[in-house]
Design brief:
four-stranded antiparallel β-sheet, three-stranded antiparallel β-sheet, 27% strand, 7 strands, alpha+beta
């Protein structure tokens, strides 16, 4: 078996470490200036803990905003907990870093996007199906990196 460096996994670890550092800073000192975050996470992740009514409303993914009203932000190596206001009802959320799909700070046009495990499984399935092709077949053309537009998060 050939050993290789898993750059994708290493990059995801580094990006999650960046999110952890940013949230640690916010937990200690609050949000500076106009900074605020849109965080989308996979609600099907086994370690996500949200109210049943939120799980019913957002069965696959949910986007939360850390901006004006949040409390109890605590950050660990595995994820973070925060209490957010939903229609004047405070709800605690437990969000593991492994469940985060996107992290965006529109105030500085910064964003990260993670592939979900579902995306990775689809790629593996496609690879498995293609293994029956002849060995001398041309490799697929290189794909450009995906550019994620932050326009949907901009204030108008």
């Amino acid at each position: 078996m050939t050993r290789s460096i898993d750059y994708g996994n290493l990059m995801h670890q580094a990006m999650r470490s960046l999110i952890r550092s940013v949230l640690d800073e916010v937990a200690a000192h609050g949000l500076p200036g106009a900074h605020h975050f849109f965080i989308t996470f996979d609600t099907t992740h086994p370690d996500v803990a949200i109210a049943d009514w939120l799980k019913e409303r957002y069965p696959t993914e949910m986007t939360v905003v850390l901006q004006h009203w949040f409390s109890g932000l605590e950050v660990t190596d595995e994820g973070f907990t925060v209490t957010l206001n939903f229609g004047n009802s405070p709800e605690p959320l437990v969000i593991p870093f492994d469940s985060v799909l996107t992290f965006v700070d529109p105030s500085v046009e910064f964003g990260l996007r993670f592939e979900s495990q579902h995306d990775e499984e689809e790629e593996e399935d496609e690879t498995d199906e293609g293994e029956e092709e002849a060995e001398d077949a041309e490799p697929p053309p290189r794909q450009e990196a995906e550019v994620v537009s932050l326009d949907q998060f901009r204030k108008t």
